[in-house]
Amino acid sequence: MIRLVIVCLLAGALAHGAEKELLPVGWHGNWQGSMLVYGRPDTPPQRVALGLNIAPVPEKNQLTWTLKYGEGDKNSVRPYVLIRTPQGQLQIDEQNGIVLDVDLTGNVIYSQFEVNGSLLTARYELRDKELLFEIVSAQKGTKSGTKQLPVQSFAPRLVQSGTMQRKEKN
Prior knowledge:
- The protein is 11% helix and 59% strand.
- By secondary structure, the chain is mainly beta.
- A ten-stranded antiparallel beta barrel has the order 1-2-3-4-5-6-7-8-9-10.
C-alpha cells in the first residue's frame, strides 16, 4: 500500500513538473533572420530583418516572446510573453490587453485571430536548426454554401514569410 502511495505521489510530481515546461528547450534562444513581405501582386516583396527572443522569465512560469522587426530607425520591438492558463491553454500575452491563444502541435506553433475584420494566421515551425515564421492576413471574401452549411471564405491579402537561425541559446 505504501509503495502505491509513493508511486502515485511520484507520478503526480512528474506530471506537475511536465506541465511547468511551456515549450521544449529547443525553442529557447535568440533567433535572427529575415522575412519577405508579399502584398500586392504588382509589387515586389520587401525584405525585413526579423528576430525572436524566447527565454525563461525568472521566478515566473513564463517565457519571453520578444519579436523584433526591421533595423535602425525602422526597428520595432514587441515584448510579449508566452504563458499557460490554469486550464492549460498556451497564450501570447502582448501585455497591452491583447492575449492570443496559441497551440503547439508537434514542432509547430499556430495562432489565429481577427483584427479589424482581417483574419490573421500565424505559424512558427522549429525545423532542425531553423525557426520558420509565417503570417497570412486575409479579408472576408465570398460567401457560399447552403442554408444548412454556410461558408465564409477569406481571401489572403498579405503574407509575411521568413527564416531565423539561433544566434545564442538562453
